[in-house]
Prior knowledge:
Bound molecules: farnesyl diphosphate, magnesium ion
Shape: globular
Structural class: mainly alpha
Amino acid sequence: MAPNAPRAVRARRPELDPFRPVRAALERVEAAIRGHLSTDDRMLQDVSTHLRDGGGKRLRPALVLLSGRAAGAPAEALCEVASAVEIIHMATLVHDDMVDGAAVRRGVPTVHAKWGQDVSVLLGDYLFAKGFGILSSQGNNRVVRIMSDVVFRMCAGEIRELVEQWDAGLGEAAYFSRVEAKTAYFIAECCRLGAVVAGAPQPVEESLALYGAAVGLSFQIIDDVLDLVASPETLGKPAGADLRAGVVTLPVLYALDHSPDAASLRSVLESRRVGDAEVALARNLIQRCGAVEYAYRRAAELAREAQVALEAAVDPSPARAALAGLAQHLIGRTC
Ligand code: FPP
Ligand code: MG
């Protein structure tokens, strides 16, 4: 958790296992991922194993499972779709690390750092094809359509992030629109997929997708705060990676508007050269002007919106309670 996260966030005891109602199903999803990525090709197996064992919260498959359970699907019907979304997520991170030139993720070398660019491109495509293969074997064309829309929007969001690099004049609306495309839509549609597999009525499907969209925005805000203020040890990667890459995030936008030293932050962005000293300066400035508290406040509002959306059409159940708890839990996370 960020050092100056609001006291209410720090004091909240995190639920020990926010995925509890689907923990057993998640084990089955893990086995399914292992099975899908198993190959006689030594090289592919090595790289896939490196990725699979490289940590990860398994948030997206858990959301498919929890939403599907909340909408009335049996866990067995959800595991294949849940494994496919995680494999597609892995593909996006392999490509993202290459785009970002990231050397480490979750404390382990990225595929890009260990095997280089050619393998990264090809492995990302391989995982992407695997994931869509699994989805297309579900016999439900909507599942494939939903996921292809996700990838389409994610790519557009990533491209927008490149276009908007170093832009100190970026408004909050542009930030939220980019985050919606690159992160929140995927999370929203994982929730929708659970409802689709359950054959849930439209209001339930929409309610779960709205929940996911709000959780996705809140999740990315916390990611952006942690990138700036958490230690590299807890992050599992160098701090300030966004700023070094010129990615302007919510705490930076707030500081540009509210810090008495905004001019020095603006000139850091204008210089397009961000090293350790500039990250330290930005971190200091952001922590002193209330940007961290502001970002947590926005994330908490979104978590509440997520809970309201959830309660609008989804009947109470252990899975619904876990989804509600998860929206809060993600705000208190440390990495
Ligand atoms: C992480 O963001 C990355 C994403 C949210 C999306 C990445 C998507 C692509 C590269 C395009 C789709 C690719 C395929 C193969 C379908 P971040 O850089 O803010 O977060 P990080 O700190 O985890 O790197
Ligand atoms: Mg990245």
